[in-house]
Amino acid sequence: MLLLTMCAGMFLVQLDVTVVNVALPAIGTGLHAGLAAQQWVVDGYSVTLAAFLLTGGALGDVFGHRRVVLAGFALFGAASVGCGLATTASLLVAARAGQGLGAALLLPGTLAVITNAYPGHAERARALGVWAGVSALALAAGPVLGGAVVSAAGWRPVFWLNVPVVPAAVFATQRLVLHSEREPGRRIDVAGVLTAVPALGAGIYAVIDRNIVAAVVAAAALGAFLAVERRTPDPMLPPDLARRTLSPNFVAAAMNFTGIGTILVLTLYLQGVRHAGPLEAGLELLPLFGPLSLLAPVAGRLTGRFGPRPLMITGLALGALGMFTLLLLNETSGYAALLPTLLGLGIGMGLLTTAVVTAAVAGIPPERSGVAGGVNNTARQAGGALGVAVLGTVVDGPFVTGLHEVGLIAGTLWLVALGVTVRAPRDNRLRGPVNLVGNTASIRPSPGSLRKNRASRSQ
User: Fold this and answer.
1) Among 3, 32, 43, 127, which residue carries the largest CB count within 10 Å?
2) How many CB atoms lie within 10 A of CB 399?
3) How far is it, in rounded angstroms, from Cα 356 to Cα 436?
4) pLDDT category, 185, cuts 50, 70, 90?
């Protein structure tokens, strides 16, 4: 039940990444919003989420993840109401930013609660597989559910879908998640928060809006953040943790850059070029979302048995191959020509998601689980926001030509991520699955050693 409740938080966060995509044409018509405004309906959520995720994880580590998750649910629900009532594109983007802030409190907290509830390597991988599977189910449900709602009742009810779920999730969190006191000696890294938020937010905004001033602000804030974290006695992002999780977090960012960015592009392609309706477009994306939903729990079990590296390598290779097939499309291509891309990306992400999260949080002390989850989710959400911005801009012209460029950019990026995964440090002298966390290896204990440990504890 605890796992299910935390998965509900993840479901809401991920649902609102894709449920809006199929509603964008209707939102544009209803609020007289152009393509740039429609992109900001997506990125207003993603940028805020990415900017505050690290802060959300750090707040949970200091004040307790139960408190922060409850605050996240409340803020997310209130902002969803604001989205449903918005009368202008600007108000909708502002409410979406409020949703992003609530999600930034929710996401690392749910991951930290699950990580701490399942300390064993294999059982944690299986639990994260369920968590990732629910995440994938939300991504899959978004276009279909959003398309059905938009077709039947317009775009506003899309945002009301969250409202009845929030009170139930709050009640369950209060009942199931243990109350934790504030850890003695831990304090909020205020300087880290004040520099991390503009570094992440302004950096993503600079790419989306091609704004030089924002780029300068982001660079200055990033330099200040790195300097602060080296000097503060209780840093929000300990430098050693950042180094240990660099490889899997880069792969996580590349995964979402391609995945979330391509979902937006393909939604626009199906509705704008192939003239599919919202529901039809959502159903036509199922070959992508189906494998993603079904494989994530299976990948959790495989990760628990073999470690994350084999699944990451296989997923990246299949995903890159799928993206390169976009180069074969032309003006007369039918829907069948798109299937290799949908299947390659869906299978690749299905294998990747659990493995990447497991690699990023394995071997991290419980008192830093919130930050570790925040860093991984920051990488994923920042990558997704950049993917929407960059790939959305690429197709702002002759669409088929843009699709070819999307396939080339995304496929190449996944090949780079594949090279990073292959070259990531590992200790071949050690038995068992080795996680991609720098030079630290997390070993799955043998069944015999587990039985001995249980026997000694019982005695």
Assistant:
1) 43
2) 17
3) 9
4) low
The Cα 31–Cα 267 span in angstroms is 20
CA 403 and chain centroid, separation:
23
Sign (positive or negative) of CA dihedral 244, 11, 41, 97: negative
Question: What spatial distance separates the first Cα and last Cα of the chain, rounded to whole Å?
Answer: 30
**Which residues are 437's β-sheet partners?**
440
CA–CA gap between residue 393 and residue 293 (Å, rounded): 28
Could you give the CA distance from residue 282 to residue 20 in angstroms, rounded to a whole number?
11
Give the tens place of pLDDT for each residue, 286-311: 888 888 878 877 887 888 788 888 99
CATH number at residue 117: 1.20.1250.20
Structure tokens at 446: 């043998």
User: Rounded CA gap, 389 and 353, in Å?
Assistant: 22
Let me know if residue 224 belongs to a domain. Answer: no
Rounded-to-integer distance, Cα 102 and Cα 74, Å: 7
**How many other C-beta atoms can be found within 10 angstroms of the C-beta atom of residue 327?**
15
Contacts of 58 (CB under 8 A, 6+ apart): 188, 189, 192, 193, 236, 237, 370, 371, 374
- Cα(236)–Cα(228) distance, integer angstroms: 10
Cross-strand partners of 86: none
**227 occurs within a structural domain:** no
CA angle 262, 265, 271 (to 5 degrees): 135
SS3 of 169, please? helix
CB 22 within 8 A of CB 143: yes
Question: Does 111 reside within a domain?
Answer: yes
> What is the Cα–Cα distance from 84 to 229, expressed in whole angstroms?
40
Whole domain around residue 62: which residue ranges? 2-178+236-452
Instruction: Find the mean pLDDT for residues 78-94.
Output: 91
Q: How far apart are CA 79 and CA 427, in angstroms?
A: 47
106 touches 73 (CB < 8 A): yes
Name the nearest CA neighbour of 323 among 240, 226, 394, 420: 394
Give the SS3 label for residue 154: coil
Q: What are phi and psi of 438, to 5 degrees?
A: 65, -130
pTM assigned to the model: 0.71
In whole angstroms, what is the distance from residue 455 CA to residue 459 CA? 6
Contact 308, 357 (CB under 8 A): no
pLDDT for position 457: 42
pLDDT band at 182 (very low <50, low <70, confident <90, very high): low
Count of domains for the chain: 1
**Residue 5 structure tokens:** 């409740």
Residues whose CB is less than 8 angstroms from the CB of residue 21 and which lie 6 or more positions away in sequence, other chains included: 42, 142, 143, 146, 263, 264, 267
Contacts of 25 (CB under 8 A, 6+ apart): 271, 272, 278
